[in-house]
Amino acid sequence: MHVRTGIAAVAAVIGALTLTACDTGSTVVDKPKGNAAAEADSGKDATKETKEKSSAPEVAKVGDTLTLKGMEDGSRLDVTVVKVADPAKPADEFTEPDSGKRFVGVQFKLVNTGKAVYNDSPSNGARIADSEGQQFDSTIADITAGPSMSSSLTLKPGAKGLGWIVFEVPKASKIDTVQFTMDSGFADQTGEWKLR
What we know:
Blueprint: H1 2-22, E1 27-29, H2 35-41, H3 46-55, E2 65-69, E3 76-88, E4 101-112, E5 118-120, E6 126-130, E7 135-139, E8 153-155, E9 160-170, E10 175-181, E11 189-194
Parallel strand pairs: 1-11
Antiparallel strand pairs: 2-3, 3-4, 4-9, 5-8, 6-7, 6-10, 7-9, 10-11
């Protein structure tokens, strides 16, 4: 009787580990959209430039666009990190970061390039990380840099949305990357941009 219980417990643990291992299907997208086209349009020697770029792979940075897929068929966005405000000033005297912290604002541009309607709260899928690897979720705050991203954004195919997403981070943190994931952070693809 004890042997069967032990075997069942081991099988349950192995099953849980297998389920966990299968659940890590997320991919990080960090290669900017349209690099090949930009090289062709630059008029420079494409083969020389390609060789130089292959030795140092380019990652997305401020101004670059990444194409991300959502969970639903036909759900796709072109996401651009337009600007960064660090530190970001609160839009009014009533909104202040906690003691020892500062606001950092990231302006995102979302263009629905898919066939399905995009309906989400973009700030739920945004996260910022510092050079130590600490990650911070977005916070609700308005900043002087410009209008906030809508908390409930609906975009038909071809439509676009633009706005700031704000994060509250320790004053000493050196911000390194920002990430964006569709479907409130649950989609398989996560876009990542280098901020410094």
